[in-house]
Amino acid sequence: MKSYTLAQLCEQLGGELKGDGQVAIHSVATLEQGQAGQIAFLANRKYQAQLQSTKAAAVLLSPGDAEDFNGNAIILKDPYVAFARVAQLLDTTPAAATDIHPSAVVDPSAKLGEGVALGPNVVIGANVTLGDRVQIGAGTVIGQDCQIGADTRLWANVTIYHNVHLGERCIIHSGTILGADGFGYANERGHWIKIPQTGGVRIGNDVEIGASTTVDRGAIDHTIIKDGVIIDNQVQIAHNDIIGEHTAIAGCTTLAGSVTIGKHCIIGGMVAINGHMEICDGVHLTGRTMVMSSIKEPGVYSAGTPHMTNKDWRKNAARFRQLDGLFSRVKQLEKAEKRREDEND
Q: 0.70 cut: is pTM over it?
């Protein structure tokens, strides 16, 4: 088990030490559940009351919260970011693979870097290039002409079709499919004619893609996910989408084809974005928002309906169906009022 003294962690984080710097820390915890040897954090005032009762060996605190705390602490501007960095230092997640398993099938034309690890029943196709220290979990299949950058990790049962390029330090979780055909068809008198999807997928550095997410290959050009993007579980990225640097996309979101999303956007859960839309940098879409036109100004956008009692929802649903009739009546009243005004002039 990894262990650091509080003073060592403080040096790593660039914070201010309060209390005993020789306390040993081996894991992270919440304020409520923290015990000896663990470090907790306070980033939400909602949990302020737990600070004085916590049994954690130390706490990550902002300067304002540290004033009234008598225990061991590291004081810094953003305790939540500090928690993330400490959690990385103390991470106990096992490797996706630790060596090249005898059951792995590697095409003779594939090129493997130093320290590559392949789990049981991994399949590596023709002309694949794996960078140094790449880890490929059990049952994963990588199609021909793929490139995977150094220190990238693929968990078990990932499927990567042909001509997919991943950058360095990426994490791809189980069940995810990269490079499946986009939904491209032409209709000839009621019959669907498939359009071969001949583009690829290009994924930058430091990208993480959650479990059971699908990223379709481009129809002609590539589908592109740029550096630092994070994508949650069960997300659909359609053909020829482009996602800008450091954008975050939450679970069950669906992007139709040829969507362009800018940098530093936050896309909430169950968002749906219509095809050929453009979303500029710095946009935040809250959960269940439906985007039917391009967004050209940064800001927060919403379209979902908050929950209510079923009784209220039924009444509102009935009234919604009456909106068109109400609109027509209002227009008639406005015309009648206009006639009266004209007659009185």
A: yes
pLDDT one-digit tens code per residue, 90-118: 999 999 999 999 999 999 999 999 999 99
Q: Which two tokens stand for residue 1?
A: 């088990």
Contact in structure between 165 and 200 (CB atoms under 8 Å): yes
105-301: which CATH topology?
UDP N-Acetylglucosamine Acyltransferase; domain 1 (2.160.10)
CA dihedral (252, 165, 142, 185) positive or negative = positive
User: In this predicted model, what pLDDT tens digit does every residue of 2-18 receive, in sequence order?
Assistant: 899 999 999 999 999 99
- Cα–Cα distance for residue pair 155/158, rounded to 1 Å: 7
Whole-number Å distance between alpha carbons of 25 and 290: 45
- Residue among 79, 27, 77 at smallest CA distance from 51: 79
CA 216 to chain centre: 16
Q: Tell me which residues are annotated as active site.
A: 239
17, containing H or E segment:
strand 16-18
Q: Are 138 and 154 within 8 A, CB to CB?
A: no
Q: Which two tokens stand for residue 55?
A: 């049994």
Residues in the chain: 345
Handedness of CA 337, 342, 344, 345 (dihedral sign): positive
Output phi, psi for 181, to 5 deg.
Answer: -60, 135
Task: Decide: 221 and 239 in contact? Cβ < 8 Å.
Answer: no
Three-state SS for 24? strand
Residue 284 pLDDT level (bands cut at 50, 70, 90): very high
Nearest to 20 by CA among 39, 2, 33: 39
| 116-141 mean pLDDT | 98
What token pair was written down for 214?
């699908």
Banded model confidence at residue 78, pLDDT cuts 50, 70, 90: very high
pLDDT tens-digit map of 227-271: 999 999 999 999 999 999 999 999 999 999 999 999 999 999 999
Token pair recorded at residue 252: 């069950």
Assign a CATH topology to domain 4-89: 3.40.1390
Provide CB contacts within 8 A for 168, sequence distance 6+: 131, 149, 150, 151, 152, 205, 206
